[in-house]
Amino acid sequence: MRLWNPAAFFISLMMSFIMAAIFGLPMGMTVEALFLLWPVRWATAYLLINIIIYPIGFGLAEKIFHFNPDRDGMGLWNPAAFFISLMMSFIMAAIFGLPMGMPFEYLFYLWPVRWVTAYLLINIVIYPIGFGLAKKVFGFDPMAQ
Asked: 69, 71, 111, 124: least buried by Cβ within 10 Å?
């Protein structure tokens, strides 16, 4: 486990805001809460991803889909993002949505919608931007790791 991950730094920064805006604001979250809780959501997402979610997500992707990030490209089908978005779309909603008044049944009813939204955002927009920023700002090269 590596606690510092420049790509996850930017990916969690963007996703912790975007997903809260997409799903929190329509459910009654105030704009002030969106911005005030962003650092807490970001830190929570970053730590969850690096400590728990990446190892489990990549492990499941390897075991179930025989995914190898060094061999397999990061196209629209990404087995690691499949599991990572599955877990994070549930965990983050449970941690932040339920205490803010989200009905418990919405945690489960909206999970597929959050999952697909997160998966598509990650693969189409956030991964390219996050890895690009990590390279530009921190000189991050995932192949050198």
From this structure: 71
